[in-house]
Write a structure and sequence with these properties.
Belongs to the helicase family. PriA subfamily. Keywords: ATP-binding, DNA replication, DNA-binding, Helicase, Hydrolase, Isomerase, Metal-binding, Nucleotide-binding, Primosome, Zinc. Component of the replication restart primosome. This is Replication restart protein PriA. The protein is α/β, with parallel strands linked by helices. Strand 23 and strand 24 form a beta hairpin. The radius of gyration is 30 Å and the shape is globular. The protein has seven domains: 104 residues, GIY-YIG endonuclease, CATH 3.40.1440.60; 57 residues, no CATH class; 73 residues, Arc Repressor Mutant, subunit A; 184 residues, P-loop containing nucleotide triphosphate hydrolases (Rossmann fold); 182 residues, P-loop containing nucleotide triphosphate hydrolases (Rossmann fold); 58 residues, no CATH class; 91 residues, Alpha-Beta Plaits (2-Layer Sandwich). The chain binds adenosine-5'-triphosphate (ATP) and zinc ion (ZN) (2 copies). The site of one zinc ion has 8 residues, from loops. One zinc ion binds next to loops.
Length: 803
């Protein structure tokens, strides 16, 4: 008897290994590595992933698989292996690593259906089961006692398919199609026979005299302003044929993308692309760091590298940060590669995501453009992996499986013998250091396209503005320059750095700040509801009319939200048309796209926004960029604060003067002398790198040292201190003298949701045994961590969020 080795859907230490199950005869040949199965586990029936098949088991009494969920494996052998690697690398359960690779739908509740994909008779007993229907419940098949092997054959032949339908059906996946059954002459005759009163029917027939192609019923009805009742008799008479067709929920389906041709590359671009192309050709794994200033044509290098990969019959993964997955970006890929592209990002509904994923699985596309999780695209013949804006923190997953997409990319590409291209105008310090050491192959684009100059940057010291009596959040020079742009009908991008700069409420008399009662953090004021909200837990309360401390009526909100800026801006320059882009205005689906379209169509003078406008925008008419609070990030308790500030200023400045018209940038700051602000304003990446490296070395931070961050939390503060203390002691004792173990320290956010948080930070150069030690710690506390609202210990081997 063959045995399936199954990873069960129970994330715990004890179950973090394969369990053996027998394969009943009817499932033989169907159960293979990568399929999901239902198995008995204790008293329950749960889901599991088959990871391998073996001839025998060490156990004498084993249970059988109850059901098989997939007929085609959902995870390839490579992904199963990758899951193992990921689980070792991040110290997470194997099951969590497998789950993280699949679309949400496949973890959620679903209903299974069988779809007949052909009009031909299925040469087996399956056809009578369909009985003329295009879709049947999978249950019907299961109850029919028909053979799974037969089903498998139909699936392999592309005649039948298994579908998982999300429980909450968002949109229909089949649509009715109509097609003429007659030629024009015959339709002519039908028309003659139709009564003059049957106006709608006549219109339909006339339509098909001109259009031979099938059309969706819905579209036809809309075009002709008629109802299904008029279609019905025509179908009955055999004039038209009506049939159901599967539609993929293509989020970009209703848009036409203008096809673009590759540009002839500039000298610099050719020099950069040559080693990439040769790595593709020679199937040689190599990591490239493409350091190109903003607007230097990195994207064109990506596009042409991908073209080569497609020409070789291989597949490409293109990662972009969620925030940069703008319609403009998607357009560029769809424009070049058309329907060969699948797009994966969080704005898609669960169903849409699943459909895009399926296009990849079925090999209907060769390119995927997506955010972090697209790194797990189920391709089997990867020719290149590209990570744009590689310095972005959003490539790091911050819960459960704490992986960095860059690491996964390099691991996958090395298994496929293909290149990885990391691109950025401001590479992460770690990456640039690796390139400097020769671990990555450095490629440079130092010039902008069309020899456009980098925009002139002016720093405005806001302290001086204040001294000279300007209390506004707009400096005088910024105001003047905006007005000049309006006069010339050019456009402006205004950027407000909101992270670490939210609107808080303070009493002017006693200085009391309104804080969340459950978290150690100031509440944020939301103007349209006149309420205070905590961004870490769900707490909210009405805006007080007097100070709870001193009863003074002078309690006000401070700080700057985009809404506030918009108001001030409108008072300052009433004639300006402003588009505001922030979480509030882009919540509705498609809103993001619409606003950018409006701005692109010059329906507004100013685009005002937060982080989401910092990246990827390419508008030729933008000649001025203003940064309102450039240094807000500098005050965060994070050793990467300077690096982030440098990156952000550079990215935002990069939005100006990208085409013919030259650009200008105004940066308002309270710390113009800070090296990250100053060097960013001079586009001195190299020098910034040197400066920052000195500090990292002095304070023993990456890239000189690796970090491991333990965050311990519990409702009882004493308990947290005690556990953290124990971890610190244990690590100090076991690690080598070269390593530093810091703590216990209260985390920067000391309390979230009534749970106290302490941390222990390990800085090390080489500790091969470290993961084993951490495992021992987690094992030791396992019982306490299982309790509801009990102890939590989060270990991050590559921490980016230090709060
Ligand atoms: N070889 C080329 N010839 C002509 N135009 C080009 C060429 N390569 C790129 N471009 C155009 O130059 C502009 C800037 O290029 P692109 O957006 O690719 O730069 P980028 O380095 O990706 O910028 P960023 O990092 O700022 O997003 C785009 O409008 C692009 O279409
Ligand atoms: Zn007060
Ligand atoms: Zn809170």
């Amino acid at each position: 008897m063959t045995i399936a080795n199954v990873i069960v859907d129970v994330p715990s230490q004890n179950t973090n290994r394969p369990f053996d199950y027998g394969i009943p005869e009817k499932f033989e040949g169907i159960v293979q590595p990568g399929v999901r199965v239902i198995i008995p586990f204790g008293p329950r029936k749960i889901m599991g992933y088959v990871v391998s098949i073996s001839e025998e088991s060490d156990f004498s009494k084993i249970k059988n698989i109850i059901d098989v969920l997939d007929v085609t494996p959902v995870l390839t052998e490579e992904l199963l292996e990758l899951g193992k690697w990921l689980s070792r690398k991040t110290l997470s359960y194997y099951i969590s690593c497998l789950q993280v690779m699949l679309p949400q739908v496949m973890k959620a509740k679903y209903r299974k259906e069988l779809w007949k994909l052909t009009d031909e008779y299925l040469q087996s007993d399956l056809d009578p089961l369909f009985d003329g229907r295009a879709v049947i419940d999978y249950e019907e098949f299961e109850q029919s006692n028909l053979s799974y092997k037969m089903l498998r054959k139909h699936i392999d032949d592309g005649e039948v398919d298994v579908h998982y339908e999300v429980k909450s059906r968002e949109t229909k996946k089949v649509t009715s199609m109509l097609e003429p059954q007659m030629d024009t002459m015959q339709l002519e005759e039908v028309l003659v026979d139709l009564s003059k009163q049957a106006k709608k029917q006549r219109a339909i027939v006339e339509y098909f005299m001109d259009h031979k192609e099938p059309i969706t019923k819905k579209q036809l009805l809309q075009t002709l302003g008629t109802t299904a009742a008029s279609v019905k008799p025509l179908v009955k008479q055999g004039v038209l044929q009506e049939y159901e067709q599967e539609v993929f929920r293509d989020p970009y389906g209703n848009r036409n993308f203008e096809r673009t041709e590759p540009f002839p590359l500039t000298e610099e671009q050719s020099q950069a692309i040559t080693p990439i192309l040769s790595s593709i050709e020679q199937r040689q794994h190599e990591v490239f760091l493409l350091h190109g200033v903003t607007g230097s044509g990195k994207t064109e290098v990506y596009l042409q590298s991908i073209q080569q990969v497609i020409d070789n019959g291989k597949e490409a993964i293109m990662l972009v940060p969620e925030i940069a997955l703008t319609p403009q970006m998607v357009e560029r890929f769809k424009g070049r590669f058309g329907s060969k592209v699948a797009v994966l990002h969080s704005a898609l509904s669960a169903g849409e995501k699943y459909d895009e994923w399926r296009k990849i699985q079925r090999k209907e596309v060769q390119v995927v453009v997506g955010a972090r999780s697209a790194i797990f695209a189920p391709f089997s013949n990867i020719g290149i992996i590209i990570i744009d804006e590689e310095h972005e923190n959003s490539y790091k997953q911050e819960d459960r499986t704490r992986y960095h997409a860059r690491d996964v990319a390099i691991e996958r590409a090395s298994r496929h013998g293909s290149p990885v291209v990391l691109g950025s105008a401001t590479p992460a310090l770690e990456s640039y250091a690796r390139a400097a050491k020769g671990n990555y192959h450095l490629l440079t684009l130092s010039k902008r396209m069309n020899n456009a100059v980098m925009p002139e940057v002016e720093l405005v010291d806001m302290r001086e503005e204040l001294h000279e009596g300007n209390r506004s959040m707009f400096s005088r020079v910024l105001k003047e320059k905006i007005e000049a742009r309006l006069a010339r009908r050019e456009q402006v991008v205004l950027f407000l750095n909101r992270r670490g700069y939210s609107t808080f409420v303070m009493c002017r008399d006693c200085g009391h700040v309104m804080e969340c009662p459950h978290c150690d953090i100031a509440l944020t004021y939301h103007k349209n509801q006149n309420r205070l909200k905590c961004h870490y837990c769900s707490h909210e309360e009405p805006m007080p009319t007097e100070c709870p401390e001193c009863e003074s009526k002078t309690i006000r909100y401070f700080g700057t939200g985009t809404q506030k800026v918009e108001e001030v801006l409108q008072q300052l320059i009433p004639e300006a048309e402003v588009i505001r882009m922030d979480v509030d205005t882009t919540r509705r689906k498609g809103a993001h796209e619409k606003l950018l379209q409006q701005f692109g169509d010059k329906k507004a003078d100013i685009l005002l926004g937060t982080q989401m406008i910092a990246k990827g925008l390419d508008f030729g008419n933008v000649t001025l960029v203003g940064v309102l609070a450039a240094d807000a990030l500098l005050n965060l308790p994070d050793f990467r604060a300077s690096e982030k500030t440098f990156q952000l200023i550079t990215q935002v400045s990069g939005r100006a003067g990208r085409h013919e018209k030259p650009g200008e940038v105004i940066i308002q700051t309270y710390t113009p002398e800070h090296y990250s602000v100053e060097l960013a304003s001079q586009y001195e990446y190299e020098q910034f790198f040197q400066e920052e490296m000195k500090l990292r070395k002095a304070f023993n931070y990456p890239p000189y040292y690796f970090l491991t961050l333990f965050t311990v939390s519990h409702p009882n503060e004493l308990k947290v201190q005690e556990v953290t203390q124990k971890i610190v002691q244990f690590m100090r004792q076991k690690l080598s003298d070269q390593s530093m173990v810091l703590g216990p320290t209260p985390s920067a956010l000391t309390r979230i949701n009534n749970r106290y948080r302490y941390q222990c930070m390990v800085k090390y150069k080489k500790e091969p045994e470290q993961r084993k030690l951490v495992e021992r710690i987690l094992h030791y506390y396992e019982d306490e961590m299982k309790q509801e609202n009990g102890l939590q210990i989060v270990v991050d081997f590559q921490p980016y969020q230090l709060m």
